[in-house]
Prior knowledge:
alpha+beta, Alpha-Beta Plaits, two-stranded antiparallel sheet, 1 helix, 38% strand, elongated
Amino acid sequence: GKHTVNLDNKIADVSVKPFTLEMGIKFELHVTVSGKKINVSEVPELSIPEDWVRDKLELNFYKSEQGGGGEVENVSYDKQSRTAVITFLRAG
């Protein structure tokens, strides 16, 4: 439908249109856990920028607190070797 929005004291008429989101990317990781760090190997080659891969890895391990994840301090990703090291703020 059509809507009227007030933006910084200016009125804008907008309309809502449906759109299709791209499907997410699923991949399998091989993980070695060592206290405060997780070594990730066989990170798949994805057609996205390297910083997006780092962000995806960080979100994956940050979200999985019940599975051994937690607040992430650093993500080091090496595209050549397809490996990453996730460093957490606290050992767990």
